Amino acid sequence: MDNTPTRRDLLCLAGTLAAAAQGQAAAPRGPQLGILIATTYTTGPLEARLDEAKACGFACVQMSMACAGLPEMPDQIPAGLPARIRDAAASRGIAIASLTGTFNMCHPDPAERQAGLRRLRLMAEACPAMGVSKIHICTGTRDRASMWRRHPDNASPQAWRDMSACIREAAEIARQANVVLALEPEVNNIVDSARKARRLLDETGSPHLKVTMDPANIFHSGELPRMKQMLDEAFELLGADIVLAHAKDLDHDGDAGHKAAGEGLLDYDRYLRLLLAHRFQGALLLHGLTPAQAPGSLAFVRGKLARLQSPSATS
User: Fold this and answer.
1) Could you give the count of Cα atoms lying within 13 Å of 149 in the half-sphere of its Cβ?
2) Domains of the chain: which residue ranges?
3) C-alpha span between 213 and 182 (Å, rounded)
4) How much is the pLDDT for 21?
5) Coil, helix or strand for 309?
6) Architecture of domain 29-309 in CATH?
7) What is the reported pLDDT for 314?
């Protein structure tokens, strides 16, 4: 029998391969799972912390300059350090998804805000050499001692003006360095909700200002019973601008998002379904956990994603 394929056989095979390739191209790959290494692996040199992240199975990290022995917002970066950071991550097959760049962007002292902007510029200018394209930021509070402590003046018009002016300068720094600032709404900060984040994005009008979504940080006291509605609203307002996502948990509302993913009350099925519905394919970064908790939380999030992405999953 002659088993030589006919022209029709070859055409059918080509069509099958093309259809498969088209299906693969259309299938979303989903979020890339990573971790904040500075707050999880808190000791040792940069390379050792990256080794821990790699051994646990993370594909990417949020980097802090503290991991390289500097202040989180340094006044200077030694020559050669950005390349060392890039090479250390690349040699381990780990992507640096973002760089921590938080400072109090509405501190009541203008000199403090300007110092933060100078440090942000230094870090932004070093990002290309580090292979980093995103810097994670928060807006801060009127509290002089801690940008994570709520202050009654946060709701004042002057606080918003000071913060938004600082954000505009920061966005211009990001534009010049060709990086993106990923702003996280945080329950104790001036931008403490999805609605305020939307307002700030619209007022700033910069493609270099986007969003970090961390739903464990958006529930004020008394709002946890409205979790479904608030998650849906947050994604309706901000979904198209989310470039980073965080994964931790909470067991009550207010200033509460300090638990490892899977150990609290956050509706992860809904959160991850919303990320997938908005075709989020960036870094989903675990934090608020210890090294001992990291494998379990990673397995929890990975398992949820696998079930939601399976062909049998329903919306």
Assistant:
1) 7
2) 29-309
3) 9
4) 43
5) helix
6) Alpha-Beta Barrel (3.20)
7) 53
